[in-house]
Amino acid sequence: MATTPAPTESKSRPPQARSVLRDIAFLRLWAGTTASGLATWALPFVLGLAVLQRELGAAGLGLVLAARTAGFLAAVAVGGVLADRHSRRAVVLWSALAAAAAAPLLAVGLGRSLLLMTVAAAVAGAGQGACRPAFQALTAEVVDADRRQQANAATTLAVRASTLAGPALTALLAAFTEVATLLLGIGLLWLVAALLPGRGATAGAPDGAPRPRRASLRAEFVDGIREARRHPWFLAGLGALTAVIALGYSATSVALPLISRDRYATEWVLAAAMTAYTVGALGGALVTARLRPRSQGWAAFAGLAAYGFAPLSLMFPVHPAVVIGAYAVAGIGIELFNVPWFTATQREVAPDKLARVSSLDFLVSYGLAPVGLALIAPAIDTFGVTPVLGACAAACFLVPAAAALAPTARHFGRPPAPRDAP
Fold first, then answer.
1. What span, in angstroms and rounded, lies between the C-alpha atoms of 278 and 301?
2. Cβ-based neighbours of 52, under 8 Å, separated by 6 or more
3. pTM
4. How far apart are CA 409 and CA 344, in angstroms?
5. Which pLDDT tens digit goes with each residue over 98-112?
6. In terms of Cα–Cα distance, which of 311, 322, 321, 308 is closest to 258?
């Protein structure tokens, strides 16, 4: 006997999320963030051109760059507190405007007043430091949670592409214009960073809501530290990132030029390795735009540990292709860590403390990098380049592996929710 088949229920698929690259609010933020990243990278490169043209001495360059670093470190913590206390958009605006105003002062002081250049560099560094945590928190306001990893990958992709093409473009411009004009161009980039991003969707308190009484800046920063301590994966990741930057990155920054000169008797190994690192980072950013590993934290820590191949490749008299390949792997790995790291911070940290926790990230990881640079060169003179590189490579491999064992490190926070059975 034939029976009429029961009507089948149509399985409705969830609507596909709109690409973040079609979101005008994000594109404005993306362009502003990219402009700030390009301006941050360009300043030391342009000042290096000033040294080549004898408009600035080597000692003066060191002083100006040190002042910029000091300004960054002094402002990044304050900027994080202000970005949680006030509108993140306003913090981006005023900090980027400060950096923009410093550019013409650098141009005026070039070849005339080292004191003016030093003060201007400190202001530029302060503007850079204050806007970094605000940009991170503003991304969480502009982009919904499901698309933040794609947004962070798009941002780092743009910055890496700029640093890859930037040297050639800047050198080309330097052939037709003066260094002072290039410094003014950096100021224009900061103006773009200040004026282009829009207001975040959740900035500030809701209309009609009473504003809580504010504590001191120090108390609010300490409150941000307490929030960071609530997340074991964050503390473990910050420790691993700091170790890789302060030891691995510092060691290769000092050793690669020496080995390129002394072992390979050519500068092209230095240039090719750094280019391979940037190209690898571009590839890593493309992969992380769509990659969603089940154990996201463990995958990110494995990527971070891959930087150990860079100092490892410099320890032995290998073919230059091995060094270049190791730097490409290191570049891929660093973005396999960075993009999920930023995304997890935006997801797991309390929204009203996000900028402060992000500022802690920049303060510790960037703050200890100069310490590593200062100690690596004397260590190489004392123990030799091979033992120092070996110790730094071991730290790059072992510290992220140890960090991966921390509670909640496997998923960078809470594990993903199980999917409903069909």
1. 19
2. none
3. 0.81
4. 11
5. 999 999 999 999 988
6. 311
